[in-house]
Design a protein that fits this description.
Blueprint lengths: L24 H10 L1 E4 L5 H18 L19 H4 L4 E4 L6 H10 L3 H9 L3 E12 L6 E4 L13 E6 L10 E3 L3 H11 L16 H4 L9 E3 L6 E5 L4 E3 L8 E10 L13 H6 L15 E4 L2
């Protein structure tokens, strides 16, 4: 039976943890039209170094475990073709649950990151659904086209993620790709299919998404290379993916998946444990517990 790791201490947090950012009306309108928004230099060099130290320490302490559980083999409920998927990236989920330094830096970032997310989506409160460190190791596989919200244990048209580049993300090492405007297509389909989303597992076939959304097969795509310290926000409805890492170096990113307040359980397990699942009731249980889904930002 394995034991919990020794948590490596990190220095006290140095604030502010991000640069100050103010969105314009044009920024918000562009996001709602295209489904994503890029912020260059969200982090200063010193802030980036702090994020890197905290996140990389937490990833190293987590060792081989995707989740925090040391003695329970939790299944992956989002992906398939694991021989392939395990070489897409090193994925460590909810580091805030095992490392207080991660929790501190995420919550402190909320006054900027959470506020941006709220303004882009036009909502008053943003909670953390989960965080993920996503590290494309050298020569890692591409990430297939997908949209996020069908996998998650709540359903919302206003879910949003931030993707923070901890290394330079380039065309060569697996930067993000978006399908601008595809969030409108998936939203229309949601309404047309009685408020449900088709879930396409993330596997080795990049084109599986088109089995559910054939109209997107001719859609234009955009590569989004970013310097370390920059970030992109994207809608949970937006189709996106990432290229292969064609280099001998790693490409690391830290992400926060966010949701509005008062989201109810929809029956999907996603990151939830079996113990949590047994306590939840579909359409009744609400994810408003700050111990499980901390508030990142709330409008005064």
């Amino acid at each position: 039976m394995s034991s919990l790791p020794t948590i490596t201490p990190t220095p006290p947090l140095s604030v502010p943890v991000t640069n100050s950012v103010s969105l314009t009306i044009a920024d918000i309108n562009s996001y709602r039209e295209n489904g994503y928004h890029v912020i260059p230099n969200l982090l200063s060099p010193s802030q980036l170094e702090q994020w890197r130290k905290i996140i990389f320490t937490a990833v190293n302490d987590r060792a081989e475990r995707k989740y925090k559980f040391a003695t329970v083999n939790e299944e992956d409920h989002t992906n398939i073709d694991f021989d392939y998927y395990d070489n897409v990236f090193t994925q460590r989920i909810n580091l805030w649950q095992t490392h207080n330094s991660v929790k501190e830096i995420l919550l402190e970032s909320g006054r900027v990151i959470g506020k941006i997310a709220a303004e882009l989506e036009g909502i008053d409160c943003v909670r953390i659904w989960h965080d993920q460190a996503l590290i494309k190791e050298s020569f890692a596989n591409p990430t297939a086209w997908h949209l996020d919200i069908p996998y998650w244990s709540f359903t919302s048209l206003h879910a949003i993620s931030v993707w923070i580049a901890l290394d330079d993300a380039t065309l060569e090492n697996g930067c993000m790709y978006f399908m601008p405007g595809s969030h409108k297509v998936t939203k229309r389909r949601y309404y047309a299919e009685n408020n449900t989303f088709t879930e396409i597992k993330i596997g080795k076939n990049l084109s599986d998404i088109f089995n559910a959304y054939p109209e997107l097969k001719t859609w234009q795509t955009v590569a989004v290379p970013m310097k370390a310290g920059s970030a992109s926000f994207h809608s949970g409805l937006l189709v996106h993916g990432a290229g292969a890492n064609m280099t001998p170096g790693r490409r690391a990113a830290m992400t926060i998946q966010m949701m509005p307040d008062n989201m109810t359980f929809n029956g999907k397990q996603n990151i939830l444990t079996k113990k949590q699942m047994n306590k939840l009731k579909i359409g009744v249980s609400v994810f408003n517990d700050d111990n499980l889904n901390p508030t990142l930002y709330k409008k005064n």
